[in-house]
Structures are given as structure tokens and as C-alpha cells.
């Protein structure tokens, strides 16, 4: 709101009691002031010399050299410069005096205040207010991100879409220097060059954007800047472009798909995790990968077993050899043997009689990944065991021994020990495979990973499907963090893809999540407890801790384990989020 300070007429003259009639006359004639404030040596207000006092002196035929001292009006009501606008309105309304003297806290004169000043001030207020309001409305509805900075490069206005893109709140940016909050906008450039320009592509959360910097000039001088962040259209264009590309690349797609099955695509870096147990598994897997032993990867479906197998092959001495995948559950029983060992010419009648190379042959010098090994028939288990023991096999219908150098990496989500007990999995094969065994914990037991994985997946999908999703609304995040994820990371990916397709841009809301996730029994934390002030990371972290404590019935050691953090860091976080009493 406007203050008196902004409406006063500054007065360059300070007359004193010894100022002569002549001097006072000259000033009043020149400047047409109705009154002049009179000050003492300390420049403090002692009274005013008015036009009527001047006439009085002339009427009394005082000589021009007479000091004005005896004609100073001493009972003046001065106005303090910090008088609020509302109070000022009252004073002006009730006062018969047209001009007042404005003083500072020490009673020193700072200027005059006239009724005309007041009217002009009011007019300005209304004009600025209306303009500001119209601008704000335009900003609120802007499709692009927009930022207005003043002459000092201080942020005066921002559009909600800009805040959404950078996941910030008004208080994070308003009245702060642009260079502090958004250094990469490089706004100072245009204050110097005075020319509008457009940046190269930038990227945040997989969303591409361009910065359009426009200087605002007044009388040839830069008095501010408008920054326009274009991102939504970019992603839409991107999407169209991608569709075109997809069509063009179809043929080569099939080609690469074919090749893909024999090449390991992933490395340890593709396995995203911040959980201490996962880090340990990654380390020991990397170590095991260097040797020759069989590796058995255990864990629920969708926990990333195949990813580990790829990474293990890629960090082994065999990385230049093939990485051949066999899904033991997907191949019909009667074909499994020929898939593994191939067959000789003439082993079958008809079109296929020209022979076929088996997966063991293909993987020679490389790795053979036997996925879902728990789903293999006992008959084949026996044959596999023989190859593992003797490192040789016969093709179907063949009599020649084929020697191979293949490293086996097997995976299963089945309980092999139970199966051995039941007699559905060979004990000797079990021991052969179980030389180095890795167990990947389910996602619900490494809640910090839900956070990091969802962020990574969001970035990736923004890029791939052309959405511009910037995060989650607190309640949606809470559901994500407390859901039990039976399908693990695979399910998380599917949920994210679906939610991002629904939401398209902005934040993912509860209604973008599948209904089955919303069942109240999965949501373990009080929803009102997620406050707006917390950052996304903080609120996710707090929800994770609360959920872990609820799940472990308050057992801090177990909760820390579930979260993948040390006990002391759990205690730090409990203090930080004031969760101690829970
Ligand atoms: N830690 C992780 N970081 C990144 N992506 C992951 C991670 N874990 C799993 N994924 C992703 O989740 C999906 C499922 O992973 P993967 O196929 O390796 O699981 P799996 O345990 O082999 O499943 P299944 O037992 O059903 O074969 C894949 O898209 C994979 O890329």
C-alpha cells in the first residue's frame, strides 16, 4: 500500500526565524508556495510562515530586511512521513488546511503535503492496482512460464506454470534476485545487451524448455525484464515428432529387437537405488560377476532380477560375448530342449529339418540367463545339470558332443528350498546354481527407493511420452509411498506411465492413480499431516518414515532397516520431522 512518503512535494528551501521578509517574499513569489516551513539550527520544525503572515508584514509596512521571526505561526500540526494511507485519508478529510508539513521521526522537515498530492497519489494507486491486477490475471492463466523482474533484476511476478515446472512456491521466488533463484536464466545478459534473445534447450525432470528473455525499456533504458519459459508446446511438438520417427523406425526397430536378446543392455548404473542393502547387493554382485561361478538371483517378480543379470554380464570378462536370455516359463515344455541345445539336420521332418542352433551354442563365450528357472521341468533340470557339470551337451537328434564355455546366470521368484523339499526341484541342481546367491528385497521394504525410482521414471517418461509432469500432489505421493507394491518396480513403472498419461502436465493427482491403489488399508498415514511447506523430498521422506514405523509397530531398528538407512540417521530424521513422540 502507498505511504505518505511517496506522495509528498519535496521542498528545497529551509527558512529560519532570521530569514528576512525580502527572502521569504522572493521564495514565495518564485515557487508559489502557500506556506514555508520554518526550522531551527538543528533543522527541526519550529513553525510555518504563511502567505497571510507575509501580507500582514507588508500591511504593517515592515522593512524588507525585517526577520520573519515574530510572524511565524507556531501552532502547526505536522504529519509524520510514515503515516499509513488510511490515517492520512481521515486527516485530509477532516482538516480544513490545504497543505501540511511532513516531518521525519526527529521532527526534521522532509516536504509538504497538499490535497492535490493526495488526489494524485490515489489516482496512481488505482492505476497501478488495476494494472497489477490485469497483469496478475494474465500471468495466472499463462500457458507458458512467465517471470517479471524489475530494474534491479528482482522478481516481481511469476506465473503458476513456471512455479509448477520448477516445483517451487511463490515465497521461494518473489522479491528475490533472479540470478539467485534461476541463475541459468542468465537474465543479466539482456540488461547489458538490451536485446531480447532465446536460449538453447534446457531440461528439468525430462521436460525440455527454452528461455525467452525480453528486456523492458523505458526512455531508452532497461527498467525490467520478462522471461518466458516455453515448455508445454515443445513437449507437444516433441510428441508429434516422435510419432513420425516411430513410424519411420519401425523396420529398424524389429531388427534391433532381434539383436537385443543377445546383448546385455544394462549396467550397474541402470539399477537405481539409495537403499543400503541394495548398494551392498550391487557391490557383491559386481564382485561375483568378475568370477566364473554361476549366479542365482532371487526376488519377487519385478524387483529387477533381469536388470542385475544384464549388469553382471556387462561387468564380467565375458562382456564381449553374447548375453542370451531364456525364459524357462515361457517356452512350451516340448520345445525347451531344442531351444537349449538346438537340433541336428534332419532331427525333425518338414520345413525345420535344416537344423537349429540352441541357446547354449549361442551363448558360447558369453552368458546364458535362465529366467524363471524354478519353472523348468524335472526332465530338463537333469539335462541342464549335466551341461553344468560336464560343460558339454548333445544336440537333439545328434550324437556329437558339443563343448561350450557358458556362464549361467539364473533367476527365480519361486521358493527353491520349498520346491526341493516337495521334490519339484532337483537338490543337486539347486546346489549347482546356488553358488553365489543374491536376494533382491521387494520394493515395499526399501521405501526410499520408491522416491528415487519414481523421480527417475518420471524424467524418463517425460522424455519418452512427451508429457511435462513436474511431481506429485502430497496426497498422491503419500499413496505411492504407502502402497505395498506387489508387482515391485515393474508395477511402479506401469502406475507412473498410466498416471502421467492421464495427467499430461502439472502434478500427478490422486485421481490419476489406479483405483486399486486407493484402498484405505494401504494408506497408513494421516493425510492432513503432509504440509505444503515441506519440499517434495521432505514430505516423501517423512511419509516413508511414518509408514515404516507403522508397519514395524514402532520398532526403530526394523524401520531403519526397511528404509535402508542407519539407525542414527533414522533418529536424526525423527528429530527433524518431530516424529519422536509417535
Ligand atoms: N533398481 C531399478 N532401477 C531401475 N529400474 C528398475 C529397477 N528394478 C527394476 N527396474 C525395472 O523394473 C522392470 C522389471 O524389472 P526386471 O524385469 O529386471 O524384474 P524381474 O525381477 O526380472 O521380474 P520377473 O521376475 O517378473 O522376471 C524393468 O522395466 C526394469 O528396468
TrEMBL record:
It comes from Sutcliffiella horikoshii. Residues 230-264 form a coiled coil. Pfam families: AAA_lid_14, CBS, HTH_8, Sigma54_activat. This is Sigma-54-dependent Fis family transcriptional regulator. Residues 7-64, 72-129 form the CBS domain. It comes from the Bacteria. Keywords: ATP-binding, CBS domain, Coiled coil, DNA-binding, Nucleotide-binding, Transcription, Transcription regulation. Gene3D superfamilies: 1.10.8.60, CBS-domain (3.10.580.10), Homeodomain-like (1.10.10.60), P-loop containing nucleotide triphosphate hydrolases (3.40.50.300), PAS domain (3.30.450.20). The keyword Methyltransferase does not apply. The lineage of its organism: Bacteria, Bacillati, Bacillota, Bacilli, Bacillales. Residues 271-501 form the Sigma-54 factor interaction domain.
Amino acid at each position: 500500500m502507498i505511504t505518505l512518503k511517496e506522495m509528498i512535494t519535496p521542498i528545497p528551501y529551509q527558512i529560519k526565524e532570521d530569514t528576512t521578509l525580502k527572502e521569504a517574499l522572493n521564495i514565495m513569489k518564485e515557487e508559489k508556495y502557500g506556506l514555508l516551513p520554518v526550522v531551527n539550527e538543528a533543522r527541526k520544525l519550529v513553525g510555518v510562515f504563511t502567505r497571510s503572515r507575509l501580507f500582514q508584514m507588508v500591511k504593517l509596512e515592515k522593512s524588507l530586511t525585517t526577520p520573519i521571526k515574530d510572524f511565524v505561526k507556531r501552532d502547526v500540526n505536522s504529519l509524520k512521513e510514515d503515516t499509513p494511507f488510511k490515517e492520512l485519508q481521515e486527516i485530509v478529510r477532516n482538516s480544513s488546511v490545504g497543505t501540511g508539513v511532513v516531518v521525519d521521526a526527529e521532527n526534521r522537515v522532509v516536504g509538504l503535503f497538499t490535497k492535490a498530492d493526495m488526489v494524485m497519489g490515489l489516482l496512481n494507486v488505482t492505476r497501478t492496482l488495476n494494472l497489477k491486477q490485469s497483469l496478475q490475471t494474465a500471468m495466472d492463466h499463462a500457458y507458458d512460464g512467465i517471470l517479471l523482474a524489475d530494474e534491479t533484476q528482482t522478481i516481481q511476478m511469476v506465473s503458476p506454470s513456471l512455479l509448477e515446472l520448477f516445483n517451487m512456491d511463490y515465497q521461494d521466488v518473489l522479491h528475490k534476485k533472479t540470478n539467485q533463484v534461476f541463475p541459468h536464466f542468465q537474465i543479466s545478459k539482456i540488461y547489458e545487451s538490451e536485446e531480447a534473445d532465446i536460449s538453447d534447450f534446457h531440461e528439468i525432470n525430462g521436460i525440455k524448455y527454452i528461455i525467452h528473455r525480453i528486456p523492458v525499456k523505458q526512455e531508452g533504458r532497461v527498467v525490467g525484464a520478462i522471461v518466458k519459459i516455453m515448455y508445454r508446446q515443445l513437449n507437444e511438438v516433441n510428441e508429434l515428432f516422435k510419432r513420425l520417427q516411430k513410424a519411420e523406425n519401425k523396420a529398424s526397430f524389429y531388427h534391433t529387437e532381434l539383436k537385443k536378446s543377445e546383448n546385455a543392455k544394462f549396467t550397474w548404473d541402470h539399477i537405481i537405488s539409495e537403499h543400503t542393502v541394495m548398494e551392498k547387493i550391487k557391490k557383491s554382485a559386481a564382485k561375483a560377476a568378475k568370477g566364473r561361478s554361476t549366479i542365482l538371483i532371487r526376488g519377487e517378480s519385478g524387483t529387477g532380477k533381469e536388470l542385475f543379470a544384464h549388469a553382471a554380464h556387462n561387468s564380467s570378462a565375458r562382456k564381449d560375448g553374447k548375453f542370451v536370455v531364456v525364459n524357462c516359463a515361457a517356452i512350451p515344455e516340448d520345445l525347451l530342449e531344442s531351444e537349449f541345445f538346438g537340433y541336428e539336420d534332419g532331427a525333425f521332418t518338414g520345413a525345420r529339418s535344416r537344423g537349429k542352433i540352441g541357446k547354449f551354442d549361442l551363448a558360447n563365450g558369453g552368458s546364458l540367463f535362465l529366467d524363471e528357472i524354478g519353472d523348468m521341468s524335472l526332465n530338463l533340470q537333469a539335462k541342464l545339470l549335466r551341461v553344468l557339470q560336464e560343460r558339454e551337451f548333445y544336440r537333439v537328434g545328434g550324437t556329437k558332443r558339443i563343448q561350450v564355455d557358458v556362464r549361467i546366470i539364473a533367476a527365480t521368484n519361486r521358493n527353491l528350498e520349498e520346491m526341493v523339499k516337495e521334490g519339484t526341484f532337483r537338490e543337486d541342481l539347486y546346489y549347482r546354481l546356488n553358488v553365489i546367491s543374491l536376494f533382491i528385497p521387494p520394493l515395499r521394504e526399501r521405501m526410499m527407493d520408491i522416491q528415487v525410482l519414481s523421480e527417475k521414471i518420471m524424467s524418463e517418461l517425460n522424455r519418452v511420452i512427451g508429457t511435462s509432469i513436474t511431481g506429485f500432489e502430497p496426497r498422491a505421493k503419500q499413496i505411492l509411498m504407502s502402497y505395498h507394491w506387489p508387482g515391485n518396480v515393474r508395477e511402479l513403472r506401469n502406475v507412473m506411465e498410466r498416471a502421467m498419461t492421464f495427467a499430461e502436465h502439472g502434478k500427478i493427482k490422486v485421481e490419476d492413480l489406479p483405483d486399486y491403489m486407493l484402498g484405505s488399508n494401504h494408506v497408513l498415514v494421516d493425510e492432513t499431516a503432509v504440509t505444503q511447506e515441506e519440499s517434495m523430498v521432505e514430505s516423501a521422506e517423512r511419509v516413508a518414515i511414518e509408514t515404516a514405523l507403522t508397519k514395524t509397530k514402532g520398532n526403530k531398528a526394523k524401520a531403519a532397516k526397511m528404509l535402508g538407512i542407519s539407525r542414527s540417521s533414522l533418529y536424526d530424521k525423527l528429530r527433524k520431522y518431530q516424529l519422536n513422540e509417535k
